[in-house]
Amino acid sequence: MKPILLILLSTIFLAGCTANQGRQSYEEALRYIEQGDAPQALACLKEAAELTTDDSLCLAIYNDMGHLLFDEGLQEQALGAYQNAQEISRAMADTLGMAYAQFDIANIYRTRDDDDSCVYYFDTAMSLALSQGDSLLATDIRNQQAGYYLWHKDYERARQLLSPSLSHDEEMTGGTCFMAADLYRQTGPADSTRYYCKLLLQNEETGLRQMGHKWLADLLLSEGQVEEAAKHLQQYELLTDTLMQETDTE
User: Fold this and answer.
1) Is 221 exposed, middle or buried (0-12, 13-18, 19+ CB in 10 A)?
2) pTM for this model (two decimals)
3) Given this model, what pLDDT does residue 13 score?
4) What is the helix (H) or strand (E) element at residue 168, kind and residue range?
5) Could you count the other beta carbons within 10 Å of the beta carbon of residue 244?
6) Residue whose C-alpha is closest to residue 78's, from 96, 87, 65, 90
């Protein structure tokens, strides 16, 4: 066999081995994510990113890396991971991938109170999602935008953005229900506040049930229903203790 052909075959073989190692590292990272072991998962994701030459796999790696880093409170590093995902999506001409990356970047800027960047990335993510006909992503973006405007007390803009989601109770997430309850307790009417707070009481998440009881207690007190309010305050305190115990355990 000619030396140059041997070198070429060896290069192809080694590249294949490296790619397989990258995928194995990524699969190992996914197992650590399922186990809730963020440090080990991040180590495997970084290794996978260094080893893989597959753009699609690399995109998945950086997306997962960004989410893990964000959950760990490492926002600057998460932003870097999302920006890498954005560049890879652009190189692949993956419009939907770019929409997801820009949505994630918007959420980073939201937590940093960088209003101009937050609004810009939300808007561009929405435009890309709509251009691809991804209604689920568009709904997620719209709801996150509503949360942003609710935080900034722009209640009319928040109401407009939440309105499509509030028309489908069966599809409403806990987060959307929380925002609706918060919106109506700020602006009225009381019946809407009561309705969404009661929906929160049915949610599996302890924190959402906690706030449902708190806001219902506030409403009942304002109506002079002291005994009923006291029942909800008691549940609020019990759930607050539960959350504190869960935090201590973590």
Assistant:
1) middle
2) 0.77
3) 37
4) none
5) 10
6) 65
